[in-house]
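[step 3/7] fold_predict: job queued, chain A
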Amino acid sequence: PMFNIPLFVWSVLITAIMLLLALPVL
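[step 4/7] structure written:
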């Protein structure tokens, strides 16, 4: 189904979110 998302996709999404959250700090 739609929820069967590969692990690397979650890794990229989490990395992108962390970078966006860290940008204002930097």
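[step 5/7] annotate
The chain has a mean pLDDT of 87.
DSSP finds one helix and no strands in the chain.
exit 0
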